[in-house]
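Module 6 notes. Inverse folding takes a fixed backbone as the condition and produces residue identities as the prediction. Think of it as a translation problem where the source language is geometry and the target language is the twenty amino acids. Below is one complete input and output pair. Work through it position by position during the lab.
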């Protein structure tokens, strides 16, 4: 898809990985670096990788709240 968008002379692509809650080597290497190379090499103009939420305090609190709500009775 990134090569196709590049060949179509897409001016800008912003990429997120909603399946991940934290950046890892896979997302950073394959998506952020290789994806950028593919897109720009095919003629795209600007590639922006949007980082995962990682260790943001508001995200960690939300994840804690979700887990606590759905693990009722499991955690004492």
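Target side of the pair, the amino acids:
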């Amino acid at each position: 898809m990134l090569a196709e968008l590049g060949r179509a002379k897409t001016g800008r692509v912003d990429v997120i990985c909603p399946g991940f809650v934290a950046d890892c080597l896979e997302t950073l290497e394959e998506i952020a670096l290789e994806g950028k190379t593919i897109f720009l090499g095919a003629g795209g103009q600007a590639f922006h990788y949007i980082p995962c939420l990682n260790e943001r305090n508001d995200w960690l609190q939300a994840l804690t709240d979700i887990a606590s709500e759905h693990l009722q009775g499991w955690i004492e």
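Reference fact for the lab report: The CA atoms of residues 68 and 75 lie 8 Å apart.
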